[in-house]
Design brief:
This protein has 298 residues and is α/β, with parallel strands linked by helices. The protein is built from 13 helices and seven strands. It binds S-adenosylmethionine (SAM).
């Protein structure tokens, strides 16, 4: 592919790149790269474009529209995975693993790398500026919580203030192996609290068989930004989460979508309130902090 060809293809796709950027939370360069990669992978079509672009509007062709559709889908799913750059996350995890080594050395450098990881996970990243207020608000209502359960935890356990909550056991469940790898390393560095990361799928009812029970119930369960995700994936998913053995549960959702410039507050609130009604719990506090809203329920 000669450079001149690439340049005119970039001109042709410019408008669509701008449109995608206006809709999704992704940079112009990233969209341009992805769209170019998808277009260039079809050499026959590229050849067709270079021969025909003078005579016809390429952007009206079905093939072109399909490539745009494919790229949008790809962007949507990548953003939905809540990791802006999975490879970078894996590199940081490998780096942490090397540094901790067999002697389990968790120095400032390792701490810094864990903090870096928080910025790689979209939902923890956007909570970071508010995390002090977020946890203080929850603590005000729950007080000390010795046993904590976190469903669909992401990397949130890395930012949790264990000492403030007096937490001794923190069971963190997520289906993403990368999240569990990161948390397993993190657990090696926490001596005051035992962190138990478990790779389980909450859509599979067997996840409960793996749930350690230290007392008859947990003091606090986090279900942060997970209820709408599960409901989207499986209409019956929330039924399987109807009897969480926990005194308090914090459920939350997003005000604005993580992937798009779109307000989703009302849609997510409807799903979350329905869940609360179905489990028959009482709302003791409603919060709205940054891009996150939610309820502390009992
Ligand atoms: C929006 S993130 C929220 C992460 C975290 N709770 C927070 O608020 O920072 C959703 C997380 O749920 C996990 N997840 C999605 N579906 C799941 C499922 N069926 N079972 C377990 N984890 C799931 C994803 O891997 C992701 O880490």
């Amino acid at each position: 592919m000669i450079k001149a060809n690439e340049d005119f293809i970039k001109k042709i796709i410019m408008k669509d790149v701008e449109k995608i950027c206006a809709r999704y939370k992704i940079s112009f360069d990233e969209v341009m790269n992805k769209l170019m990669t998808n277009l260039l992978s079809d050499s026959e079509f590229v050849e067709y474009i270079s021969e025909r672009y003078d005579e016809e509007d390429i952007t009206r062709l079905k093939k072109y529209k399909d490539i745009i559709k494919k790229t949008k889908k790809q962007i949507y799913y990548e953003l939905r995975q809540y990791k802006q750059d999975r490879k970078k996350v894996i590199n940081i995890i490998e780096n942490i693993s090397r540094k901790i080594g067999k002697e389990k050395i968790c120095d400032d450098e390792v701490e810094k790398l864990f903090q870096e990881l928080l910025f790689m996970h979209t939902s923890t990243k956007e909570r970071l500026p508010w995390s002090g207020k977020f946890y203080a608000t929850i603590f005000k209502y729950t007080g000390k919580t010795r046993y904590v359960l976190d469903l669909g935890c992401g990397l949130q356990p890395i930012s949790f203030p264990y000492d403030m909550f007096g937490t001794d056991y923190y069971v963190a469940i997520d289906k993403d192996p990368i999240v569990i790898d990161a948390l397993s390393l993190f657990s090696k560095c926490r001596r005051s609290c035992k962190i138990i990361p478990l790779q389980l799928d909450l859509l599979d009812s067997y996840w409960r068989d793996h749930l350690p029970l230290y007392s008859d119930q947990y003091d606090l369960t986090f279900m942060l930004k997970i209820i709408p995700v599960l409901q989207r994936n499986n209409k019956d998913a929330l039924k399987k989460l109807s009897d969480i053995p926990s005194k308090y549960i914090v459920v939350s959702g997003n005000v604005e979508a993580l992937t798009r410039y779109e307000k989703i507050y009302y849609r997510e609130r409807r799903i979350i309130l329905k869940y609360i009604e179905n489990v028959g719990r009482e709302i003791i506090y409603e919060f709205n902090i940054g891009n996150e809203f939610g309820y502390i329920i009992r």
